[in-house]
Every structure is written in structure tokens, then in C-alpha cells.
Design goal:
The chain is of the alpha/beta class and about 270 residues long. The chain has eleven helices and eight strands. Strands 1-2-3-4-5-6-7-8 form an eight-stranded parallel β-sheet. Strand 2 (about 55-60), helix 3 and strand 3 (about 85-90) form a beta-alpha-beta unit. Helix 7 runs parallel beside helix 8 (about 185-190). It starts with 8 loop residues before the first strand and ends in a 5-residue tail after the last helix.
């Protein structure tokens, strides 16, 4: 690739155990009525990323029901331990679970660096009291990566993300998909300028032109945007090719590609 950057970090990738990966990938594709390019396995993620120079991946999965939390987190921990130079792990919680405090401490003790929530899959509003409990428990210890935006539902609307961010100013939130999948204009209005809101680029480039992407990067702030692919949905090489066309400076592109998430998570790349 011809982007002038020292590293590339994919800040938003979903992985699944080999036995269920293809089915899980297919289910996500059905939910969004979008084509899934890959099978969702760790080995495919790394092998395809190697082809276009990706250095590291922030990996996660979502517990759609409470009993999945421990199993998913065990899988993420084991995957990171298997590929410590390639993978950075985010754990899963569920708003209906008991023992969230203990699970957060377990995630931290196993080296995970954040928490992934998906309101539309887990059926809770970002600003629901059940979610507030999780922010209170974990927010001073770990950042939250939250799927944000879906015009078909009201669980993850950008305005709800804004409400949560204002109520919990000490919590660092990554509002995925430029803060509002399928609701990018509202995300820009509601979330840009909030001190504790960061965004990633995942599942967004396919639906906009380079000028819109540049507008969003500038509005959210060049220090607050993380490159992500939403693997297994999109091809990293296509998103990187798109980013080449975005009318922002090479310095800003390098921030988006790795410097911002490196600083945010304290990964230590230099």
C-alpha cells in the first residue's frame, strides 16, 4: 500500500471461535443485509491483514445473552495470548448480568483493554439505567466501544450516546462507525465536540465519499478518530484505498491509522 505510515492498527474487528465463525459472520450479514467478505476466524483476520500491512487488531465479540459473557471473554483472552504481537482484546459485558464488577476485574487481570457493547444486539438503550450500572462499574478502569447508530432501531441512536457521554464525563466512549451507522449526519450534530467521545471509521467508508469522510474526521477531531474495518464485514485493503483518497494531510492519516489508538490504549508503539 502507498499510504505513508509506520504502522496500521485495525481498531474494530470481530472474531469468533473456528467452529461457529462462519455462522456468526452470516448472522451479522443477515442482520444488516450486507455482504460479509470473511469467515470471522482469527487466522483469516491476520492473514488478510498481513497482505495490506496491518500491524495490530483490536478484537472483540458481543454477548447477546448473559450466559455468553464468560465464554466470549475466555475466547478473546486466549486469542490474545496466542497472538500477543498482533491482537489487543476488548471484553464483553451484558447489562442484565450479575457479577459485572468481578468480570471487569478478571478482564483487566487478563490484559484486556476495553469493553464492547452492542445495544441493538443486546436489546438495551445506550442511556438505559442498566447501561449506566456498567459505566459506573467499569468506566474509571476501561473505555467502552459501543456500536452507535441504526436508523431502524432506537437503542443506539447518536442522541442516546450523547446523553450517556454527558452523564458520565469521566468515561471514555468510542462511538463506533463515526458515531452513527446509517445516521452519520445526526452523529456529527450530537457527538462532535464532546470531550469523552472518540469514533472509529468502521462500516462507514462504503456509504460516503472521501469529502464526507474528511468532514467527519475534521469535525470529530483529528486526534479522536481510529481506523477500523468491522471485520469480517469489509476488506481492509478497500478501506485503506479509500482513506488514500480522503482529502486530509498525511499526518492526519497517520494519526487515524495508528497514532490515535496507540495513545488511547497505551500500546507503546513508537
Amino acid at each position: 500500500m502507498s499510504l505513508n505510515t509506520k504502522y496500521i492498527i485495525d481498531s474494530h474487528a470481530h472474531i469468533f471461535p473456528d467452529k461457529i465463525a462462519q455462522k456468526a459472520s452470516d448472522n451479522i450479514g443477515s442482520f444488516y443485509d450486507l455482504f460479509m467478505n470473511y469467515d470471522g476466524t482469527v487466522d483469516t483476520l491476520i492473514s488478510e491483514g498481513n497482505k495490506c500491512g496491518i500491524t495490530k487488531y483490536v478484537v472483540q465479540s458481543v454477548a447477546t445473552v448473559v450466559h455468553q459473557v464468560t465464554h466470549i471473554n475466555d475466547f478473546i483472552v486466549s486469542s490474545v495470548k496466542k497472538y500477543p504481537d498482533k491482537l489487543v482484546g476488548f471484553g464483553s459485558l451484558h447489562p442484565d448480568m450479575d457479577g459485572a464488577e468481578e468480570e471487569v476485574d478478571r478482564l483487566i487481570s487478563n490484559g484486556l483493554l476495553g469493553i464492547k457493547l452492542h445495544p441493538d444486539f443486546q436489546k438495551f438503550a445506550i442511556n438505559d439505567e442498566k447501561a449506566f450500572r456498567l459505566y459506573e462499574i467499569a468506566g474509571e478502569k476501561l473505555p467502552f466501544l459501543i456500536h452507535t447508530g441504526d436508523k431502524r432501531y432506537k437503542y443506539s441512536n447518536p442522541s442516546l450516546m450523547a446523553d450517556a457521554a454527558k452523564r458520565f464525563p469521566h468515561v471514555r466512549f468510542i462511538a463506533a462507525h463515526f458515531g452513527g451507522w446509517s445516521e452519520w449526519d445526526e452523529a456529527e450534530r450530537e457527538l462532535a465536540g464532546l470531550d469523552n467521545i472518540f469514533v472509529d471509521t468502521s462500516s462507514s467508508f462504503y456509504s460516503m465519499n472521501p469529502e464526507k469522510a474528511a468532514e467527519l474526521i475534521n469535525r470529530f477531531g483529528s486526534d479522536r478518530v481510529f481506523f477500523g474495518t468491522d471485520y469480517p464485514m469489509w476488506k481492509a485493503k478497500d478501506d485503506l484505498k479509500f482513506l488514500q483518497q480522503v482529502p486530509i494531510s498525511d499526518d492526519v492519516k497517520e494519526k487515524v491509522l495508528w497514532k490515535n489508538i496507540n495513545s488511547f490504549l497505551g500500546l507503546g508503539l513508537v
